[in-house]
Specification:
By secondary structure, the protein is mainly alpha-helical. The protein has helices at about 20-45, 55-80, 95-120, 145-175, and strands at about 5, 130, 135, 190-194. Helix 1 packs antiparallel against helix 2 (about 55-80), helix 2 crosses helix 3 and helix 3 packs antiparallel against helix 4 (about 145-175). The longest helix is centred in the last third of the chain and has 34 residues, at about 145-175. It binds protoporphyrin IX containing FE (HEM). The site of protoporphyrin IX containing FE has 20 residues, from helix 1, helix 3 and helix 4. Protoporphyrin IX containing FE binds near residues 34, 79, 103 and 184.
Length: about 190
């Protein structure tokens, strides 16, 4: 295995061949947060009223949701300023198109999750307190029906999101263990690994 040192100045930004550290850290921190949010959301809806987490977990879920929304906006802006690394491996144009479409779809689903979560949380006209630092205001007047509709959508979009993430992760593992190309490795390090 040959390890080529990437120039220090290029480590933060993407290049034609590699993801930079900013994209890598955003990808994995958001991946961990989003997967944890799915399971936390699934768990908290079944909590008993007398459980210590009955109020605390939904509050954390909302606060982290706001942070995820902000990081996703930053990620979109960052991507707009970057080149996307070229495809590696032997995928044909159809598979490359499907992979790209899945990435856009994942972004879309995350934004829909953040927006529907916001609409559920503010359905009673109350803003969201974010770690005691600031309050994200309720921009719309209270509306119970809108809150319930947003709740149903949030649940279904969450399911669709986690299913697509599973396929996306499976594709990454397939590239790594079956096709043995650099697809997964270059999302883990900025070093050029062959
Ligand atoms: C364990 C879970 C995950 C694994 C193993 C994984 C793996 C990867 C890999 C290897 C790439 C690079 C693909 C390439 O260069 O062609 C990638 C890119 C990408 N992944 Fe994931 N991923 C995971 C979770 C997620 C999640 C939860 C999201 C949700 C937003 C996500 C969104 C993306 C997007 C949008 C890209 C395109 C590059 C970018 O815009 O940052 N991934 N992923």
């Amino acid at each position: 295995m040959q390890i080529e040192k990437a120039p220090v100045t290029n480590n933060l930004r993407n290049s034609q061949q590699q993801y930079g550290w900013v994209s890598i850290v955003l990808h994995w921190s958001l991946a961990i947060a989003l997967i944890a949010m799915y399971f936390a959301g699934d768990y908290m809806v079944d909590l008993d009223y007398y459980d210590t987490w009955y109020h605390r977990l939904p509050q954390i879920h909302k606060e982290v949701g706001v942070v995820i929304g902000a990081l996703m906006i930053f990620r979109l802006l960052w991507n707009a300023l970057q080149t996307s690394p070229e495809n590696v491996g032997d995928d044909g144009p159809k598979i490359q198109f499907i992979a790209k479409a899945a990435h856009y779809f994942l972004y879309g689903l995350v934004f829909m999750l953040v927006i529907s979560g916001y609409l559920i949380s503010t359905a009673k006209g109350q803003g969201i307190d974010v770690f005691g630092l600031f309050e994200l205001p309720a921009f719309l007047p209270d509306n119970k029906d809108r809150g319930e509709l947003a709740g149903d959508l949030h649940e279904w979009i969450g399911l669709g999101f986690i299913a697509l993430v599973a396929l996306h992760a499976l594709a990454a593992l397939l590239h790594h263990f079956f096709y043995k190309d650099r697809t997964l490795k270059r999302m883990l390090t900025v070093k050029k690994l062959n």
